Fold this sequence. Notes:
The structure holds two protein chains of two kinds.
Chain A (H helix, E strand, L loop, with lengths): L28 E8 L3 E6 L4 E7 L7 E6 L5 E6 L4 E6 L5 E6 L1 E2 L2 E11 L5 E11 L4 E12 L10 E4 L6 E4 L5 E5 L2 E6 L5 E6 L25 E10 L9 E10 L5 E8 L6 E4 L5 E5 L2 E8 L2 E9 L6 E4 L5 E5 L4 E6 L5 E6 L12 E5 L1
Antiparallel strand pairs in A: 1-2, 1-28, 2-3, 4-5, 5-6, 6-7, 8-9, 9-10, 10-11, 11-12, 13-14, 14-15, 15-16, 17-18, 18-19, 20-21, 21-22, 22-23, 24-25, 25-26, 26-27
Chain B lengths: L4 H5 L23 H14 L6 E3 L2 E2 L6 E2 L1 H13 L7 H14 L4 H4 L3 H4 L14 H5 L6 H4 L1 E2 L2 H14 L14 H7 L1 H8 L5 H7 L8 E9 L3 E13 L2 E10 L7 E8 L3 E8 L2 E9 L5 E8 L2 E12 L5 E6 L2 E3 L2 E10 L5 E2 L4 E9 L2 E8 L6 E7 L2 E10 L4 E5 L2 E5 L10 E2 L1 E9 L5 E8 L3 E6 L2 H6 L1 H4 L1 E3 L4 E4 L16 E11 L2 E12 L10
Parallel strand pairs in B: 14-20, 22-30
Antiparallel strand pairs in B: 1-2, 3-4, 5-6, 5-12, 6-7, 7-8, 8-9, 9-10, 10-11, 11-12, 13-15, 15-18, 16-19, 17-18, 19-20, 21-24, 23-28, 24-25, 26-29, 27-28, 29-30
Helix pairs in contact in B: 2-4, 3-4, 9-10, 9-11
Amino acid sequence: MNLKFLVPVALAGLLAGCGSVLSPGHASHDFIVTGAAPDHLFVINPRTRKVVSDFTIPDAHDYVSVIVPSPNGKVAYVLVNRTRSIAGINLRTGKEVFRANLESPGERLTCMYAFDVTPDGKELIVYVYRTRLEIDQYKVQAPRFLIFSTAGGLHAKPLREFPAPRRVQMVLAKKDGRSFFAIGFNLYEYDLKTGRLIKRRGILDWHRPHHLRPDMLAFWPVTEPTGIFSSPVYSTLTGPGTPSGGVPETSLLTLNLHNGHLAYHDIGRTDALIFSTVIGPQRKWAYGAYTQLTKIKLDGAHWRVADRVNLPHTYYSVNISPNGKDVYVGGTMCDVIIYDARTMREKGDVRLPGCDDQATATLRVIERR
Amino acid sequence: MHWRVWSLISGGVAAVAVLLGTVGAAHAAMMPPAAARAGLAVVQAHCSACHRETAPGHFARISEERKSPEGWAMTIFRMENVHGVRLTQKQLRTILRYLSDVQGLAPSETRAGRFALERRPNHPILKLPYNLPVMCGRCHSLARVALTRQPASEWRKLINFHVGQFPFLEYQDGSRDIRWWKIASTQLPAKLAKLFPLHSAAWRQWRNRPRADLAGVWIVHGDMPGRGDYYGTALIRRRSWDRYRARYVLHYANGAAFNGSSDAIIYTGFQWRGTGTLGGKPVHEVYFAAANGSRIRGRWFLAGHSEIGGDWDAARTTGAPKVMAVIPSALEVGTRQRLILVGRGLRGGVDLGPGTKARILVRRPYGLILSVRVNAHAAPGYRTVRVGGVRSRDLLAVYRRVDHLEVEPAFAIARLGGGTLAPVDAQFQAIGYTNVLGAHGRVSAVRLGAMPVTWSVAPFNAEAAKRGDVRFAGTLRQDGLFVPAEGGPDSKRQFSADNTGDLYVVATRRTGKTAVVAKAHLIVTVQRWIKPPIY
């Protein structure tokens, strides 16, 4: 399926985060974090279906997008200011505790939706595009990874900078705290301290037999609760037995942030578009959102679409409760809906006060004691 | 963004060049020295702080490209909106005319991109090599590219500007599966400079030609899809070296009046940009004069609704005798009709071939009005039109049956309205064809022109049927004009979708018990907020 007619240009992005590794058995509760224009950051209690906090992000400039919670769930790092700033907001008090305005003399820096926090919560890895602004021309520079200390305060400056490839859609910290992944034309793994390229594996450059070059728009990377990032990948199946023009096919790409394992699973013919997915805690089901909520059965090596229900409108972002019982869909407009993960029935919904658009804000799940 | 392009580009408001200094300029042919000096003075005063004057009259970047007035307007608007340039309306006009004249395009260099300047709706994408449709034709038409002339170094800077200004470009569909930046920053600039170079023989010759004087009496004919042919005369008067005023005495095919007037500026010696009225409605004109000033052709369109408009073809009343058009262009056998031969120097009798009888009713400055009888057994096919010694082929056909129809355009996009934004309509017409047996038993289809038909819409596929697109997307009028609905989420639709749609537009022509049917594909999509001078 061609994404061209379906993906608004403004949607060019979203990012991923590490999320907390949840150990079952703790007396903790999960909360949903989402954002909305012009400057809202919301915390939602899914049990009461109430917005418990509606924080104002300073200098968001009518733009709230990717959200990355710290591993302890205390701070949310939010891409604001038309991708030129990252604000860290304390999720209890709403206070801004971190701010990185992406700037450099004579240059324009933009975070291409790709940033993450390290598992120890101490550093942010931010992928930026750079343009030199000269008196009568712009000069495109090579992109970079900027490493910030989360203790950098409200005028954080990068601690380290590394060269980066172009067109990276996502940055994800590995759980061992020593390296991080970048997803672009390939999957790259870099040393967090030195920026050395450790490993490169094919994503778009990966040639699968009987498949045309795949298309992936992975801007809704949610890694909780399993530490596995997943994203739909669209391709066309060709070769013997397929009609001319091929068969549009959806696969799920997964990247395990514990061990770096990368895999593709075909889930069937592309009958409906999926924008983002989440893997359930028992790794038996995955869920995908767009105009429909899709439930995918992960049965050993055999993954397939098991159920599909219509959503009231389009939702870009999907997440799941730590126990795997409730699926949350959000993003786009001003509501978050809770579905029963088993029956796929709607259990309730939360309207955001003011009804401002979430647009590309990521729906994240944090845990609180 | 609001583009003030029309108040700026066309001759709607009188503005006279400021006369500065006394020294002659090198651009005497294209514009008078005083106007050239005035333009240069604005560049020096308002652009040279950033674009250094590296040699007298030569400014970094500015002097290294040539383009259309609309192209210059786009750049100057960006200099205002993004780089803080402040110009008065008068300075804007002065610099726009200056740059368009001294760094413009020769007539042949505008040909490929004229459709965009004329704002022709649903124009197919330009066929250009090097994967340019994918690399450069996704966000705007390739006319923007084809109407720019610059060296590789400037193409490279323009590409750098694109990524600096729109960093997500590389992430969009069409870019993200190729190495857009690598291709665009390494191979492409030299290829673009080869296709569209700064220096060309065509421009060297054109810039030194004296301007043709367009004043005089002109014969006009044209076609307005949905309304049909029109014809008549234009009286064009010269007001200054680059300004004209025109008066139009025109008629629809049925003789009803379709009058108008216009004020126009001529850029680069041949590009007519006018603002006025036609049939009582405000219109803009984008015309191009032939090099010797003997013909003016182009398209006019309604102000604010550029998708509605008509072709324009004007020739001088003086010159070799000729028939320019026959209205209507097809005659059914067994009928008697009024026929207009648009043309000049049409003296002597009229002969439309065997089985026809033509009588001249009246002679007009734009041609002849005839009464024609076509008998029931007249042979179908193209007829040679003979007037005195003048013969014209392929302008008139005789037919017994309409064997098939084609809807034009075969594919169209309409856009929803909403708020302050007018919808973008889509105008269809049904073109009739009759089959004629040729010399070697070969059947050929003879084009008869637009036919009256019954219009309807149908869902394009099962999905569209399920969504109820026919009910939500808009209405198709019986003149073939599709008027889209209001935009915005519609709570009556599934997923609160916008009133978009995927439709067939169906033309049906019934004669007795038989019906001929033809279809076109119409996509009704969301609003477009930005309407730049070159789409």
